[in-house]
Amino acid sequence: MPPPTLDIGSAEALLIVDPQVDFCPDGALAVPGGDEIMAGINSLAERFGLVVVTQDWHPADHRSFASNHEGGIPFATVAMPYGLQVLWPDHCVQGTAGAAFHPAIAAGALTRAQLVLRKGHDREIDSYSAFFENDRRTPTGLAGYLRERGVQHCVLVGLAYDFCVAWSALDAVAQGFAVTVIKGLTRSIAIPGPDGIATDIAADRDLAAAGVQVIAAA
């Protein structure tokens, strides 16, 4: 049986998640191979009429940064009022070069974007998903925007597969959208999760359970 492919005719919106310098090699929170997907994302964006790009946009004193916790260790977890929080290296700080879009995206897919959505700007709450902050109660407004545009099916690509892409995909399904993730146009951080399962494996499991279609390529 051939692998599933993407039917662009039924996929009304492309959501490009956090294609930023800090998530690429030599960035503050580098995702292995993060830069390798940018050309493919640009090509894919040319096939969509509606493109949305998200941008991590943290204040320097963001509580998800290990540096803002006494004795904080990057990639450890701490209890926050909204649940367990991974402590990250400082990344995507507002106005810095690391928060900028990867140059290939800035010259390509970004020029087609009808919406750029910044997230993670509240110092007290991290925001992986494009739809909700990590308290799972505070919406970004993206679901309403997509509904008003008549979108029924979202296609997701970007960084990182096992955090912001996966959380966005799960929330999109919960909001009633059909969702496809093109895994070949994502990359994973792949760290041990709180349950001992690597985060990329857990993302595979959770997306399948939620009915998200994950395909290798478009």
UniProtKB/TrEMBL annotation:
One Pfam family linked to the record: Isochorismatase
Keywords: Hydrolase, Metal-binding, Pyridine nucleotide biosynthesis
An individual GO BP term: pyridine nucleotide biosynthetic process
GO molecular function: metal ion binding; nicotinamidase activity
EC assignment: 3.5.1.19
Pathway assigned in UniProt: Cofactor biosynthesis; nicotinate biosynthesis; nicotinate from nicotinamide: step 1/1
Superkingdom in the source lineage: Bacteria
Chain ranges of the Isochorismatase-like domain: 13-183
Assigned protein family: Belongs to the isochorismatase family.
Name listed for the protein in its UniProt record: nicotinamidase
Species in which this protein is naturally found: Stella humosa
